[in-house]
C-alpha cells in the first residue's frame, strides 16, 4: 500500500492491517478529513452471539468511532429471513421471526462492549433492516430497484460463480440477497447520510452493488472498504478452535476459555493479532511480535489480557490469567475453569469417564472422548487415565476433579 492517507481513520486501517481493498481511497480519505463520516457493517442474526470471526470488523467500527466518526451496526432482521449465499456451499436454514429477534438481543450485548451508543455527536446507531425491508411492495421494488440490476453481472460475482461452477443449487431466494443488501446501503444513505459500507473481502460484490445502486437512484457518491479474510498462520479459519466457534457472549463461552483461545495463539500470529485485536501502539505490537523462545509466551499473555479486557473487562482478564497460572504453573485446580456441576440424579449409581469428558465439553461425542482417553490424551487430576469405562460415584466427586485434554484444555467436575 503506497497511498499515504490524510485522515486518522485511514492511517489506522493501513498501519494496523485492516485494509484489503477500497473503492476510492482518495475520495474516502478526503471525506474522512472533511468531517464526520457515517459508516456501517451489516450482521445477519443467524446465532445468539457474535463470534471471534466478527471481531476484526467490530474493531474497525470501534476505531472509526475513536477517530471521530459515526458507526452503524445494521442488524439483518430482514435479510436473515433470506440468508447470505456468499461463498457457502448450501442454503442457510431459515429462522423464525422470534428466533431472529432473540439472536439480535444477544448480539446487542456484545456490541455495547465495543461501541458507545450514547447521544454523542458520533454516537453509534443500532438499526434493523426489517425497518424498511418488511414493508416492501414487491411490484414497486421490482420496478424501482430491480431494473438497476444486471443478472449477467450478478452471475459474474465470485460468490455466485463459485457455487454455480460446482453445480450447487442457488435458490432464487438467495439470489435476491445481494439486491436486498444493496438496497440497505441506499436506504442508510437516504435516511442517515451513511456514505461508507465496510465488511470482509467476501462482501466486495455486495458492497459494489450498493454503491452502483445508490449512484443510479440518488446520484450520490458513496464508498466501500473491505478487510482481509483472516486465516491463522497454519491455515485455519480465524475464530475456530478445537471446541467449535469462539463465541463473544460470556454465557456461551466463559471469559477463561476466551482468554485461553488468545493465549494459545501461534507464535507467528502474535504481532499481527496484537495490531488487529488490541489498541496497543503499533510499535509495541511489533516489539512483542518479534520476541522469541519463552518470551513470546509473555507476549501471548499481553494479547490475551488486552483482548479479554475489551470484551469482558479487566477483572475477568486478571481472573483468567490467575487461573491459567494456577493450572499450568502450579498444577492446581483454578476456580475460573469451565465447570461441570452434577447432581445426585446425574450420577445415579455412577458415571463413566467417557461421559464426563463429553459433558464437560472436552470432547464433542462419546466416540471422540473414548479415542482421546485410549490414546493417553486425558488426565484426571494430572494423572493420565486410559480407562474410558472408569466409573465415578458421588463420593469420588466430593472434592472437585480436574480433567485435562492435552496441555491446554481443562475442566472441573464437581457435585452441585
TrEMBL record:
Which residues bind L-tyrosine per the record?
Answer: 40, 177, 181
Q: Provide the Gene Ontology terms for cellular component.
A: cytosol
Q: Which EC numbers characterise this protein's activity in its record?
A: 6.1.1.1
PROSITE patterns, alphabetized: S4
Supply the SUPFAM superfamilies for this chain.
Alpha-L RNA-binding motif, Nucleotidylyl transferase
* Catalytic activity field: tRNA(Tyr) + L-tyrosine + ATP = L-tyrosyl-tRNA(Tyr) + AMP + diphosphate + H(+)
Keyword annotations for this protein?
Aminoacyl-tRNA synthetase, ATP-binding, Cytoplasm, Ligase, Nucleotide-binding, Protein biosynthesis, RNA-binding
Q: Is Transmembrane included in the keywords of this UniProt record?
A: no
Subunit comment for this entry?
A: Homodimer.
Q: What does this protein do?
A: Catalyzes the attachment of tyrosine to tRNA(Tyr) in a two-step reaction: tyrosine is first activated by ATP to form Tyr-AMP and then transferred to the acceptor end of tRNA(Tyr).
What is the protein's given name? Tyrosine--tRNA ligase
Species, as recorded: Phaeovulum vinaykumarii
What gene does the UniProt entry assign to this protein?
A: tyrS
Amino acid at each position: 500500500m503506497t497511498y499515504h492517507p490524510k485522515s486518522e481513520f485511514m492511517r489506522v486501517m493501513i498501519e494496523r492491517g485492516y485494509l484489503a481493498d477500497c473503492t476510492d481511497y482518495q475520495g474516502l480519505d478526503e471525506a474522512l478529513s472533511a468531517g464526520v463520516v457515517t459508516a456501517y457493517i451489516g450482521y445477519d442474526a443467524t446465532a445468539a452471539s457474535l463470534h471471534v470471526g466478527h471481531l476484526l470488523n467490530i474493531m474497525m467500527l470501534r476505531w472509526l468511532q475513536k477517530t471521530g466518526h459515526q458507526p452503524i451496526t445494521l442488524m439483518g432482521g430482514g435479510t436473515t429471513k433470506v440468508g447470505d449465499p456468499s461463498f457457502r456451499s448450501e442454503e442457510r436454514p431459515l429462522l423464525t421471526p422470534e428466533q431472529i429477534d432473540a439472536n439480535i438481543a444477544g448480539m446487542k450485548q456484545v456490541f455495547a462492549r465495543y461501541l458507545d451508543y450514547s447521544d454523542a455527536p458520533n454516537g453509534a446507531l443500532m438499526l434493523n433492516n426489517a425497518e424498511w425491508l418488511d414493508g416492501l411492495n414487491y411490484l414497486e421494488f421490482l420496478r424501482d430497484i430491480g431494473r438497476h440490476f444486471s443478472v449477467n453481472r450478478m452471475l459474474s460475482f465470485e460468490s455466485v460463480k463459485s457455487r454455480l461452477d460446482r453445480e450447487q443449487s442457488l435458490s432464487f431466494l438467495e439470489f435476491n440477497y445481494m439486491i436486498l443488501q444493496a438496497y440497505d446501503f441506499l436506504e442508510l444513505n437516504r435516511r442517515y447520510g451513511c456514505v461508507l459500507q465496510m465488511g470482509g473481502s467476501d462482501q466486495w460484490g455486495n458492497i459494489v452493488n450498493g454503491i452502483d445502486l445508490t449512484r443510479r437512484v440518488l446520484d450520490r457518491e458513496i464508498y466501500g472498504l473491505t478487510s482481509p479474510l483472516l486465516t491463522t498462520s497454519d491455515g485455519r479459519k480465524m475464530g475456530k478452535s478445537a471446541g467449535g466457534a469462539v463465541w463473544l457472549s460470556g454465557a456461551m463461552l466463559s471469559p477463561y476459555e476466551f482468554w485461553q483461545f488468545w493465549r494459545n495463539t501461534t507464535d507467528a500470529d502474535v504481532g499481527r493479532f496484537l495490531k488487529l485485536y488490541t489498541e496497543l501502539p503499533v510499535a509495541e505490537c511489533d516489539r512483542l511480535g518479534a520476541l522469541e523462545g519463552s518470551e513470546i509466551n509473555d507476549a501471548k499473555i499481553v494479547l490475551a489480557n488486552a483482548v479479554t479486557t475489551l470484551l469482558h473487562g479487566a477483572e475477568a482478564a486478571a481472573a483468567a490469567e490467575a487461573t491459567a497460572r494456577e493450572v499450568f504453573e502450579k498444577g492446581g485446580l483454578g476456580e475460573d475453569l469451565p465447570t461441570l456441576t452434577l447432581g445426585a440424579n446425574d450420577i445415579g449409581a455412577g458415571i463413566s469417564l467417557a461421559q464426563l469428558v463429553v459433558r464437560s465439553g472436552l470432547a464433542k461425542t462419546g466416540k471422540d472422548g473414548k479415542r482421546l482417553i485410549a490414546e493417553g490424551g486425558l488426565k484426571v487430576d494430572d494423572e493420565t487415565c486410559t480407562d474410558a469405562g472408569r466409573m465415578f460415584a458421588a463420593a469420588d466427586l466430593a472434592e472437585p476433579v480436574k480433567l485435562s485434554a492435552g496441555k491446554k484444555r481443562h475442566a472441573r467436575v464437581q457435585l452441585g
